[in-house]
Every structure is written in C-alpha cells, then in structure tokens.
Amino acid sequence: MKLWTLATSTLESFLHNRLMLVLLLVGIGMVLLMMIPLLGMKATITGQNKAAVESMVLQAISEVVSLMSGLGSLLAAWAATDSLVSELKAGTVLAVMARPVKRWEFLLGKYIGVMLLMAGYAAMMICVSYLLAWLGGQHIHANPLLLFAYPLVRYAIYAGMAMLLATWFGSVMSVVCVMGIAIVNTIVQPGSEDWKPKLMWLKTALYYVLPSTNLLSEERFLSLRQAALKPTTWLEHGTSLLYGLDYALVFLLLAMWSFSGRSLRRD
Amino acid sequence: MTTAAIEFQQVTKVYRQRLRGVEVSALTNASFSVGPGEVCAFLGPNGAGKTTSINLLMGFFFADFGEIRVMGYPPGDVRAKAQIGFLPENFAFYKYLNAERLLRFHYALAGGKPSSAAPLIADLLAKVKLTEYSRLKIGKYSRGMVQRVGLAQALLKDPQLLVLDEPTSGLDPSGRKDVRELIAGLKAAGKSIFLSSHLLSEVEQVCDRVIIISKGRVVQIGRMEALLGNSDQVEIVVTALPEELHARVTGWGGSVTAGEHGTSVMIDFGHKREFAEAIWAAGHDVVRIAPLRGSLEELYLKTVGNESGVA
Question: Smallest CA–CA separation between A81 and chain B, in Å?
Fold first, then answer.
C-alpha cells in the first residue's frame, strides 16, 4: 500500500511537471512532422517505383521508432533522477520520510512510479509503431507483449542506473553520466568500429560489464523492413529479458544501499 | 521505568566537505532527554544546531558519535516514526495537491486505511481552520495556511511524540494563539512535544522544560519554573513608602513603582528583611512579598549572549 501510494504520487508529479509536458509535446510534434514526408512518399508510389519508395518509407518508419526508443531511454534516466533529486531539493522528502516508511521503500516506490510512466511511454511507442507500419502499408507480426517488454526492460536499466547516480549527484550530472554510459555502451557492442589493439581489453571489459543494448533490442526479432518475426523462441526472449532485469535489479539494489546511507539534506 | 520520548547521549555531528577539506562542527557532545508527556522547548540562535538535532532524531542525518533513542528506538526506525508527528521548518509539499489529498497521502503512508481517512481528515482540517479551503491547491495557499496544513499532517494518526520545528512561523497572532491552544490540548492529552521556536513568549506559556543550545553545545537545561524562578530580586508591595526609605531603595539599586493598590518596590533578595522591618517600623504595612520571576527572554539572552540571530 505504501509503495503504491509513493508510486502513484510519483507518477502524478510527473504529469504535473511542466518540463515533462513540454518534452511530450515536442516528441509528439516531431513524430507528426516526420510523418509528413512519410505520407508524401507514400502518395508518390507508382507501379515502377513501388519497391524503392516502400524502402524509403520503411527507412523513415525505422528512424522514427529508433528516435522514440532513444528518447524513451533519456526520459527514463531523467524521470528517475528527477523523482529523487526534486524531492531532496524541495524538501518534500522530509515530511514523507517522517512517516513510517523505510528508505528502500521510498526509493522502490519512486522507481515503480518511474516505471509506470515508462510503461505508458512504451505503450504509446507501440501504438505509433503500428500506426507508422500501417501508413507504410506493412504489418507488424511481432507479439505486442514483446514489443512492450523489451523497451521497458531497457528503460528499467536506465532508470535504475540514473537513480543510483542521483543518490550521489545532482540531476544534470546524473543524466549526463547515464547518457555517457549509454554512448560507451553503444561503441563497445560487437559490430561497432574496432578499437586500437592496445585498448581492446577495455572494450571487452566494458562489453561484459555494461548491459548489452543489442541483446535487449526488439530489432533482434522484429524487422520492419520485412515486417516479419525473426525466429526467436520464448526461452530466448525470457533469457534476454531476465538478463536485462538482472541489470536493472542490481542498479536498483545499489541505489537503495546508497540512499540508505546518505543524509536527506536539501541539495 | 518509563522510556524517554527523546534521548541524546554525547551526540556529535560534524559536516564535512571532503573536496574542500572543510569541517564544521554542528553538534558537540549534546546530551538531553525529553520525558513522556513533557512539552520541551528547544531554543538557540540561528546555526546553533537545532535543526541538525531534529534531523538527527528524525533519522534524516546520521550522528558521528553518541547515541540517540526516540521512543526507545534508534532514529529512523519505523516503529519510532509510527509514533511521531513531525512538522519540519519550512514545510514543503506537493503543490498540485489540495489539503485533503495531501492529508490522505500522508495518512496512507502512515499505514492508515483509506476508508477510515475521511472523518479524521475533516476533523483535522476543522481543527486548523482550513475546512473551507480543503479543495484549494496548496500551491495557492498563503504561508500561514501552509503551516496549518503542516500542523494537520503532523497530527495524523494520533502521534505520541510531536516534533515541531518553528510551528508558529508565518502565522498571524490569532494563528499563533490557535497553535498555543493546540499544544496545550496535546499536553493535556499526555503527548510529548519537542518544540523549536524563536518566539520565546509563546514557548514560555506552553513549555514545561527548556533546552538552550549554542554553537552546537547544550548550555542550559531545566524545568521552566526552576530556571525562571532563579531571579535574585524580590517584589515587595507596601501601603506607603516614606521619603527616607525611597532614598534607601534607590541607594540599593532597586526600583519603585507607584500603583493603584500600593507602591511596588523591587530590591535584591538580601535587603528584603531590612526593608520590611523598616516599613513596619514606620507604621506602614507590607501587602505582598514575591520573588521576581525572570522572563524566558532574559534567561535566553543571559545564556547565549548577543550571538547573531538571537530570537
């Protein structure tokens, strides 16, 4: 009950956050803007250029989905950081923590609130994906549950990481660190540009330490280009998602441990 | 043996800025206790360590040395927090909530069942005179109204110990009177109250005990009447004061005030007998002899001197 109270209050505070609303409006505006050339291209399809235009349409769809997914990671990091830092800054944490609430309960409640927000975002992302695929004359055959679960697990990792950093730093620093880690994460994935031989050990070490974005990407099984499901078993999905959840859990536990030992001073 | 509501034993807290190598000692070997059912004033100039002490006892900060027990438990323990009502200095709130929803939120966090919240919340809002504003967002409240909501949330779930940091801050005289009456009511109900305030006259009226802290050290502690009754002056009211005795009083450094029911003379305790006998010898009478009670403000200023931020 306490966790749910904290989670819903966190979600509500996001919905009253002006910056959040502005970001959301900007995001929706960008998607709508990107849909204009998409619809324009679709209108120019003739018998001769059908394949080429369809390819361009699908490319545009893929970019919109990637952009939304990336923004989602940023949103997860920012929301997790803000949920904690804003409470400490405003001092609202004092009245809350004067209640019989344990510190880990407070942090977990905040985390659940962030994940509720991200669940809404992921659901919206699926709707946009289906809409774009429909506009592009394609069908998404993937299970919507998986399309929902994969980004949510990625967001859970970013939110956990941001929350851990927010127990040490301010909001800007925490988000910048998460983004830095995300960039490093991308450049250590297999297939990325090779590093100098001297630094290969670092790349390998970082690859094993950081969560694999390739493994946790829905692109592994969903290809919009063919709009078909790549053969991936449920066991494989389960293992990949557990792998991601494991990372998220480790970050969350570290954040709880760090928060339990810090003073609740107004930063 | 009854458990003290609050117990500080040799508590030390140092703020450190490791990168800058700065250390500020906020509390040094502070020891005091607040008994059950006691209303205790916690006084001191700004920066003396009052809010640090409150943050330590609430479990928001951690002490470097010493031991703290609150309702018999370590600070921050949920069993202790379940018995505490807390009003922080500058009560912060979620601006998008109204008073009713804020209290409902705190009630849920305190482990209350939502079904039983409505009558209690209505009662508390009436107590702090906010019933007609209960649906207005707190962001639109005045400073005094916010303080009243803060008080209402502190009283949720019938706490045994109230920790109030500047409860009358931002309140008008009538609001301050309401708070004073509220505290008196809680005292009568046997609640322990730990009250930090700069309004010494208010404190003097409601508190049983006083703890004065200065530069992180406890410098004065005791029961109110014992501390304020320690004046070395006495007030003697006489039916008349002959010229010769008036001169003698002035010579002793005393003061004379003519009143409707006689003349009031204030002199050192040591001259009491001599003066009374002289009055009787002159054929006049003594109406009243009473030790002069000091004010809390006098005691405070005497104790902490003229440090900046004096109440």
Answer: 17
Nearest CA in chain A to B78: A100
Tell whether B121 and B165 lie within a shared domain. Answer: yes
Cβ–Cβ under 8 Å, residues B124 and B152: yes
pLDDT of residue A229: 46
Of the listed ranges B200-209, B220-229, B231-240, B275-284, the one predicted with least confidence: B220-229
Q: Which residues of A touch B88 (CB under 8 A)?
A: 91, 94-95, 98
Cβ contacts (< 8 Å) between A6 and chain B: which residues? 109
Question: Do the Cβ atoms of A154 and A98 come closer than 8 Å?
Answer: no
Write out the residue range of the structural domain in which residue B258 sits. Answer: 233-291
Dihedral of CA atoms B270, B273, B274, B276 in degrees, nearest 10, equals 130
B91 in Cβ contact with B46 (< 8 Å): no
Residue B304 lies in a domain: no
Q: What is the C-alpha end-to-end distance of chain A, expressed in Å?
A: 29
Q: d(Cα A11, Cα B271) in Å, to the nearest integer?
A: 73
Domain co-membership, B189 together with B247: no
Residue B77's pLDDT is 93
Look at residue B298 and tell me if it is in a domain: no
State whether B69 and B114 are in the same domain. Answer: yes
The C-alpha atoms of residue B112 and residue A141 are separated, in whole angstroms, by 47
Q: Decide if B303 is inside a domain.
A: no
Residue B192 has pLDDT above 90, yes or no: yes
Q: What is the C-alpha end-to-end distance of chain B, expressed in Å?
A: 36
| B99 in the same domain as B11 | yes
Set of chain B residues whose Cβ sits within 8 Å of the Cβ of A5: 105, 108-109
Residue B286 belongs to a domain with what CATH number? Answer: 3.30.70
Q: Which domain holds residue A174?
A: 2-260
B194 in contact with chain A, both atoms CB, cutoff 8 A: no
Percentages helix, strand, coil for chain B, rounded to the nearest 5? 35, 30, 35
pLDDT computed for residue A226 by the predictor: 47
Inside any domain, residue B126: yes
Q: Which of B76, B86, B96 sits opposite A16 (nearest CB)?
A: B96
Distance between A211 CA and the closest CA of chain B, angstroms: 32
Give how far A12 is from chain B: nearest CA, Å.
Answer: 9
B55 touches chain A (CB under 8 A): yes
Number of domains in chain B: 2
Q: Please tell me the distance from the alpha carbon of residue B273 to that of residue B285, in angstroms, as a whole number.
A: 13
On whether any CB of chain B is under 8 Å from the CB of A179, the answer is no
